[in-house]
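hey can u check if this looks right to u? its 88 residues, i copy pasted from the old doc so theres a chance i mangled smth
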Amino acid sequence: MCHHFYGPLQRKMGGLGFIRQGVWQNFMRAWKAGYQGNMLGEGFVLGGVFVIGAGNQGILLEHREKEFGNKVENEDVLEAVNRIVPVQ
């Protein structure tokens, strides 16, 4: 089963994105950490992380991948989640 959330525009980076220095640094970091990917799915779509608060709080965190492997900091996600105020 595959789930998609691209918003109004699907953000992609073309094949030339693979020659960017930052992409190779991210690849080496993941490889050294033992991450093993696969060849499934759409490899050129840039990802992102959103933390959306309850009620009228809106977006508490927005991280859009600028290049392949540009990850969000876990501490930033936890901080945003902790700012969510339950609706009464």
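The CA atoms of residues 9 and 45 lie 11 Å apart.
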